[in-house]
Amino acid sequence: MKLNNALIYDGSGSLPYRASIETTGSVISRIQSQGFDDGLDLNGLVVCPGFMDMHAHSEALSLRDPGMSIRAVQGITFDLSGNCGAGLWPRRPGQQRYEDILGPSQGDWKDFASYASQSKASINQAFLQAHGPLRLFCLENNPNREATEAEIRSMAEILETSMDDGCLGLSTGLYYAPCLFASRDEMLALLRTVAHKGGIFSVHHRCEGSSILQSLDEILSIAREAECRTEVSHLKVIGLRNQGLVEKVLEKIESYGATFDQYTYDFGSTSLESLLPPFLLGLPKAQRMEALQDPQVRNKARLQMLHPEGWDSLVDLCSWQNIRILQLPTFAELESMSLAEVAEKLSKDPFDCLFDILSKEKGASLMTDTTQTDESLRTIMRHPLGVWGTDALYTAGPMHPRSSQATFHLFRSFYLDKPAMSLEALIHRMTAKTAQRLGIRDRGLVKEGFKADLCVLDLYHMDEEKREGIPLVLVNGRPIVSRFSSVIEEKAFFPPVLNA
Fold first, then answer.
1. How do the domains of the chain map onto residue ranges?
2. Residue 467: which residues within 8 A CB-CB, separation 6 or more?
3. What is the dihedral of CA 275, 278, 284, 289, to 10 degrees?
4. In whole angstroms, what is the distance from residue 367 CA to residue 369 CA?
5. SS3 of 88, please?
């Protein structure tokens, strides 16, 4: 393919330049000042590297929809999946598949190698070994407890095999069962394995609210002892009363030599069940549903949710007004309502509303929760240790907009409407910076000899609701999105001037 008269943001963070690009096979073969014969005239539209998502949950999506159109249309040409300790391997027949987080998955596999042989995604993918499936596989009788020495050795052996087969490292979610029951010895053994294999450790740490500094100390001290490269997942500080901790959090991450990724929304999304305290999350779902019908259990849960110790109670941090139901198959009429609105509608205490719902809902339940201010989000975004991620979840039914329109929202809200940084810096954070962090040497730049993962941006027509503004996306030189009409109207792009 030949693209003439492009305004090239090459991913390095350098200022843009005008040139024409030719791709041959899967690589960028030539970049030159003059146009090519029979090339597509872009009339000054932006060309940049395809976007590299550092924090994805696409492992089940790629099995259901290999075209991954919901990702491709956003200009995402690479993602790193297996985050937050939620994943699909290793797996015994009938073992939990994390459908509440990842959505339904199709196929049969037992380990990473057999999973990878079935995944034929249209975009480039890399994976982490998720901690949760390791515990489910190796702690057969009950994963919600501390592991024995023998079980820790088994997890480390499977982790090493997964990395030998291509996984880039390990992820955990210490906020979620069963990972929250891991001991320091378990984490140290697993992180030493990652370090030995030269991999990266990605962590959804235990507390992102009032105890965030102690939570970071807990896991980053283990990572430092293991000499393991560490990425803090979806960095944020939860709770309006805690926004003053943002600078201290960034200093803490710097002091440990860690890095982080971030999605650019002030509200998150997770399972509605994650509102419950750990003593309930440690129960199998059927047993938990039954327990929530017991008034004494409800009273105990209520007290712990109001006065949490060593875990994040989103009810305490965000309030009922800021927790909104996103997906609830059994009670679909409550979807899009806040829990405060549900309580008003049902004329019940909001705790009882939540307990009633979760004692009856057998399907996957999701919520959104407002977690931080726009100012804090932008402060984190500007920090040099951060890269971009979506934390996109692809369950059946309604989804967080970060799953379907993250890039459109990013350019619209944080560059065109109210710039957080220059366009070249923003694109660098989404491309070459991520490639460098993961040791990927042939992607992330518009450069001769690099893989032809490219996006064309029509920033004048960037629309997150309609998902418009990215008319052409190439992966390995092959167009996977092409929305050009036969004639491209004159629309040279001039970047907004940032305030000094």
1. 2-49+440-482, 52-266+371-404, 272-369
2. 73, 74, 404, 405, 408
3. -50
4. 7
5. coil
Length of the chain equals 500
Q: Identity (one letter) of the amino acid at 155?
A: M
> What is the pLDDT, as a whole number, of residue 395?
85
DSSP string across 102-138: H----S--SSHHHHHTT---SSEEEE-EEHHHHHHHH
Taking the chain (500 residues) in consecutive chunks of 10 residues, what is each chunk's mean pLDDT?
Answer: 96 97 98 94 95 97 94 97 97 79 87 94 96 95 94 98 98 95 98 98 96 97 98 96 97 98 93 93 91 97 93 91 92 94 95 96 89 95 98 87 96 96 98 98 98 96 93 96 59 36
Question: In which element (H, E) is residue 387 found?
Answer: strand 386-388
Q: What angle do CA 251, 278, 140 make, to 5 degrees?
A: 110
2-49+440-482 fold = Urease, subunit C; domain 1 (2.30.40)
3-state secondary structure 205-243: CCCCCCCHHHHHHHHHHHHHHHCCEEEECCCCCCCHHHH
**The two structure tokens encoding residue 368:** 């959104």
CA–CA dist 256, 153 (Å, integer): 27
Q: Quick: pLDDT tens for 127-174.
A: 999 999 999 999 988 999 999 999 999 999 999 999 999 999 999 999
Its pTM stands at: 0.91
Structural class in CATH, domain 52-266+371-404: alpha beta
Question: How far apart are the C-alpha atoms of 406 and 389, rounded to whole Å?
Answer: 9
Neighbours of 373 (CB within 10 A): 14
CA separation, residue 448 to residues 20, 22, 451 (Å) = 12, 9, 8
CA distances (Å), origin 466, targets 401, 481, 487: 12, 15, 21
Q: Report the SS3 class of residue 49.
A: strand
Residues 6+ apart with CB under 8 A from 452: 1, 23, 26, 27, 28, 474, 476, 477
